[in-house]
Amino acid sequence: MDAIADRAFTESQTNPAHKLVDETPSLLAVVVDINPLEWRKLEKEQSVSLKQVVSSIIVMLNSHLSLNSSNHVALYIANSYSHGAQLIYPRTESSKSTRFLHTPGMYRQFRFIDGSIVDTIEHLLNEQPDTLLQLIGREQGKQHIKGTLAGAMSMALCHINKIQQSDELNALKSRLLVVSISDDSTLPYVSVMNTIFASQKMKISVDVCKLGPSSTFLQQAADATNGVYIYITQPEGLIQYLTTALFIDPMLRPIIVLPTDESIDFRASCFITNKVIDVGYVCSVCLCILSVIPEDEKCPTCHSKFDHNLITKLKRKPKVLPLKKKDKELGDKNGTATPESA
Amino acid sequence: MSPITGSAIYKKKAGMITVLEEESPPRLIWKCIDAGVAPPVEILLDTVVTLQASKKTSPKMLLKIGIGSGSEVKSEVVFAFNSRIFMDNVKTVLQQTIARRKSAAAADASLAASASSGRSTPSAAGSPAPVDGRQDEVLADMLDSKKLLKNLTLQQKLLRESPALMKTFAEAVIKSGLDPEEFWSTRVHLLRSFAIQNNQKRGPYNVLSTIKPVASSENQVNVSVTREKIHEIFQQYPIVRKAYDDNVPKMSEGEFWSRFFSSKLFRKLRGEKVNLYDRGDITLDKYLFYDPDYDGEEEDTDIDKLLEEKKEEDGSRKRRNSEQLTAAKKKIRLFTQDGKQVSKFIDIKANKEDNPETLGNGPDITMKEDQNDELVGVMRSMNRLSRRMMQNIKDDADMDREFEEELELRDLDDANTVEYNQLEYTQRSNLSSNILPADVLEKFNSQSQLNPTPTVYDEYMKTYKLQLREVDLSAVYANKKPLLDTYKEILNITKKNAKSQAWTIKLDTSVEKQDVDVDLPRDRLEALRLTHSTSVEFLRHFWLHFNSISTSSPSTNPNFRAELLQLKKLYTSITKCVDRVQSSLAQLDGADRDLGRLLMDPLSASLAQALTSYEAAIVG
Description:
The complex is a heterodimer of chains A (about 350) and B (about 625). Chain A is of the alpha/beta class and about 350 residues long. Chain A has two domains: about 1-265, 3-Layer(aba) Sandwich (Rossmann fold); about 270-335, no CATH class. Chain A is built from twelve helices and ten strands. Chain A has helices at about 1-5, 10-15, 35-45, 50-65, 110-125, 130-135, 150-165, 190-200, 215-225, 240-245, 310-315, 325-335; strands at about 25-35, 70-80, 85-90, 175-180, 205-210, 230, 270, 275, 280, 290. In chain A, the strands form three sheets. In chain A, strands 3-2-1-4-5-6 form a six-stranded mixed β-sheet, with helices on both faces. Chain A has a two-stranded antiparallel sheet with strand order 7-8. Chain A has a two-stranded antiparallel sheet with strand order 9-10. In chain A, helix 7 (about 150-165) runs parallel beside helix 8 (about 190-200) and helix 8 (about 190-200) runs parallel beside helix 9. In chain A, about 40% of the residues are buried. By secondary structure, chain B is of the alpha+beta class. Among the domains of chain B are: about 5-100, PH-domain like (Roll), CATH 2.30.29; about 520-620, Methane Monooxygenase Hydroxylase, Chain G, domain 1, CATH 1.20.58. In chain B, a hairpin with a 5-residue loop joins strand 8 and strand 9 (about 220). In chain B, helix 4 (about 150-160) packs across helix 5, helix 5 crosses helix 23 (about 520-550) and helix 23 (about 520-550) packs antiparallel against helix 24 (about 560-585). The interface between A and B is large, with 100 and 79 residues. Chain A: It comes from Pichia angusta. Chain A: InterPro entries: TFIIH_Tfb4/GTF2H3, vWFA_dom_sf.
């Protein structure tokens, strides 16, 4: 637990500057949320489309690559209904893209990368079933599609770890950018927290570019890893966000003031209802967080049996004296009655 | 100490008064000069209840002693004195004796209380002041929550020491009538830590290392030492005491210390490197050549004896004169530990016989042959220091027992087996996070299977799939306006963060500066703050009772009714808090009021929450 509690980033914050800043290459990993029905909502409400976001991200990736010839990028998608989380770039089976992006005079290397990214995403989109029926069928029990944003983040962290373990690239500093559009109910709490701890240990900052409803857990992720959480108020200017606020190299982080949203919501989510809660119960064995007392009086996560007496105590309602009448009479009345309705 | 004696007049007859405080029980005796004229008066100091003396300004010098038991005064004795000084003496002695008796009685009472609560404590309650061994017990007893709540003196002391707490106390308890016990019940931890703090004894530490010469602006070196530190230095470095004893009447104390801190001796004792050519102090540096193991005068008697014996042995030697003898005594320190039994475990002589030197542990760092002299010197002086510090601790912990435990062989003991509970684990959160919106699912499941209408998903998929057919990377934005706005937005966030970061850094360096920059007049802000802290105090007690009362019932809790009433009282207090917040806001005007409202909003919300919870509970 010590290792988890270790705030890897405080050290660098307290002693800024005075460090030699050299131009080591860095890796930028991006996770894009492509949850179709959320995109539908976004298109309606904020008039921003997946196309805009993807092209802005591609431009951002190109900018990153052009900063240093040894810079790397990685791109993941998350929350697709039929494919879950997927690696988009770099893929091992590279199919040469024949696509001509409307960019004459573009650097050849970029064209390969960009083409392959657009091709792969489009390919994945096309593989999505046409109707909901084909996607989930009629069986009620199986109509469940897991949120995979945390999964994609884990995959990206694994990718970074793999690169950092390799011989020639081990000095590579890395950061992770999450472009999220879904709300917290699609985020598995425990997985997100584990991802946060992992990136803390690896000293990888998680930046969050948030469209749609704001997310408590991603705020916490950015805060815990010295990353930038920024809520996009003007999607038309997305490229500006991506290439300034979300474009801060890991080497610069200890020195500059981050344009992150500092008011962070630190609440946790209930393990049963999956809703963010203010006050709740905590299982004393596994620390699972509950907003309601389970019917079977067992912890839903670790199946430990709760003390029955304690639960009946918890369920009891507070007893108070009525307000209006005189203290004396009521004291007697309430004192002798047996008030129990829970 | 000789008993205090002096003349005093009792019932207009001259006589002698004597205070026998050493005796048990302590007494005060007045005897008439003419033995036959008046009978002697004897007062047991244990029975003294009140003590009154005439004012310093008044010409009369009277001392009135009230005698009785408990707080009751049965009779009074008045003495008249001729000398104010003597009267004051008598008065202070009496005061001290009474105070001592009271504290002893308190200790006894607490002992008795703990004995009745089931613990076995020695019933000998005769000795007045608590002796050292009992100190721990008294302290442990004092830390009991109930005792802490009753310990008014401790509470007052704590209040005096922390003005912030005093303010809350004054506001909540004195002005708004919160029960003081109630107030302290949530702060038992504060009382406890304060009590411990007050009773803690500081252990020995290396004094010289804490003394740091500070260079002042006038090219001088300043060293500040307190009485306690000097005492510690004397204890840990007898050589310094020796030097002090030898020199101080000759030079002034201040001179001695300034010489000492600039001497080589000081540097050597601190374990610093001393070069031959360093500037030192002639008077004090001769002590450098004294035996570093010099342990003070108290052993000189032993040395005397030994020297005496030696002289007798070789009688052929001339008797030295006494001066030479003392000089020799000071320079040579004989090994006086012959008589002491050295444990075989650490006795090097014994080990040498038993162990061939090729085996076993290597010798201690200070015992090796080819060792750096300086290093050995430092190690030796550290060892010496540790030894002296240990000597000064008067601890009767069972050293033998500890030693035995260290030596005990445990490899044949039964190994402890660690037992585990098996836990099944289900990751609920992964199961419950469905990214399909519930409303879409519901619609889908409720429609007829024979004639399905396309869902939102089906409709959207058509356009969604076409999204990336055409991608134009040269047009990621339509016009420059949003870019500029975004730029400004990011700049603003950065500025805000820079400001708050600078503020946190300032906070780190100076703890006192905890004020937020709020554009409110200082007194207004202070008033709001006070209202806030008082309200929070009441809220805290409210919730404490509100939540605890649900788990008790008239049958389990004898104070059930009282607690209900208490809770109701707190409810009214909270309604008053709401009024107070309103009125303090009403005192502000214009923009200040908006700001004040902003500041107090969270508090108002929590007050309202408490009120509604209470009201809801009435119906249920």
